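pipeline: protein-struct stage 2 | run 1193 | Alpha/beta hydrolase
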Amino acid sequence: MVRENPTVVLVHGAFADSSGFNVITKRLVADGFPVIAAPNPLRGLASDAAQVKALLANIEGPIVLVGHSYGGAVISAAATGNREVKALVYLAAFVPEAGESAQALVEKFPGSTVGESLKPVPLPGGQVDLYIDPRVFHPHFAADVPAEEAALFAITQRPATGQALGEPATGPQAWQTIPNYNLISGADRIIPPAAQEFMAQRSGAQVQMVEGASHMVFVSRPGATVGLIEKAANENAHSL
């Protein structure tokens, strides 16, 4: 009996949208994996996780859940209690414990340029949308992506609210009970590699370091990214 591949669910982070996953999606689909790119509202950690959690509950069969950057914090909450999520894959991502926010984790180690890169847009009601200033998007966010491509990502980026990035994780985190894999971007100027290594070691992840990779490692190094996702799928997808 031939077992079907699990569904790979991709969750983007802040200052991005699902179009960044196009290249790895094509490769995964060509390799026989169903893929869903989950919409991440980027409005608040608890509400974003609840929306992804609802999507996961309507997928039949095993799931490999993948998160980039802030999306890592979202999947850590969204997967809790769902026995069909067989593996978590973190791509240059936040892997928080309860009580930790993306903002706190990015400030835990030196080397991030995110603070100086942000362009705030005040919203009605006192909240603020945060963008990466397009003038620094290429060097700070996507240094190993061709400049023309990085410029398009800067234009199509979606903002996160200050609330989302500052909201602490609460309750059990899925990585505490679900096998997890971590792709660390070795030249990341958004989440310092030292912070990524700290979180990956704490979570007991299988780790792959991509030397010289920017925060958009899944764009610049699609082969390494797909390889780790498929490894997670092959090692865990049919576990009970």
